[in-house]
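Hello support,

Our group uses your service weekly, and this is the first time we've seen a run hang past the timeout. The protein is Probable nitronate monooxygenase. I'm not sure whether the cause is the sequence or the server load. Input pasted verbatim:
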Amino acid sequence: MSLKPLVIDKLVAKVPIIQGGMGIGISLANLAGAVGKEGGIGILSTAQIGYQEEIFEKSPMRANMEAIKKQFDKAKEIAKGGLIGFNIMAATFHYDRYVKRCVEVGADVIISGAGLPINLPELVKGSDTKIAPIVSSNKATKVLLGLWKKRYNATADFIVIEGPKAGGHLGFKAETLKESIETMDAEVVKIIETVKTFEEEFNRKIPVVFAGGVFNRSDIDHYLSLGCSGVQMATRFVVTEECDAPDAFKDSYISAEEDDITIIKSPVGMPGRAIKNQFTERIQHEQIPIEKCRSCLSYKHCDRETIPYCISETLLNAVTKDPQHALVFAGANAYRLKEKTTVKAIFEELTAD
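Update from on-call engineer: The timeout came from a worker crash unrelated to the input. Re-ran successfully.
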């Protein structure tokens, strides 16, 4: 069967695939634009999006604000009318400024996780930008959508469920990851039922998109059979020619074996999935001094005096220096990637009847 388009209010993605936002420096204009061009939704990560700007070290916030427009405009040009949006972590320092800037430049969608984006509806009010929270449980879905209804008389335009096989920061406890993987399908069904109650209350369709471990067409068909309207994929796009990451970063994925995919403890207090290397070994037994604070996270998410290492600094090192000595986030299926490819080839594979 052919895949049906993903319809989000008045937005229509011809292919129900959203490319996940990967920061720092992985999901930028070239990758997002290529995905949008193929009919999916390309996503730019705002995490230190301006790291390549000349003024970044002197004024990271200003660099990021300028880069949001530059990267978005470039992605839109590449996408040739395709859909482009942003992933913004709710834990971001000055979160409201990032959201408003993305709305200002014309973002089609904003996807927000790494904490509950409690005030997101207020920040996009009056705009055409569609919003989606990232949730990992039915409980979080009920709490957030209930809060949005009570506080703003608003709801989500779509929902992204991020499962325990995702890369990067995870909304699950490290000690229960295996159990969470086994019970995730049942949780997806519960979340979809919860979303239906808000669909009825607001008299509108709220598509549910699943993310985390989606690798091939069989995976897509599986989540569509559970009631999802689409999927979000990130890891598969890392080794494409269009991905903005440097070749050394992509090679980390290609050379990884199954045993190299590991769970680390992030300084933001969440478990994260990454590729085992010299850095992940080092953080197990020593605290790494912060060379420079770039105020990337809100103070409640980062205690600069006690954190074992700076998450922003090591993610920057992964794309600007040697990824073997930095944090390389990756999904559970990263080891299955054995050669470089293109965004077009991936879409042709995933959309074949």
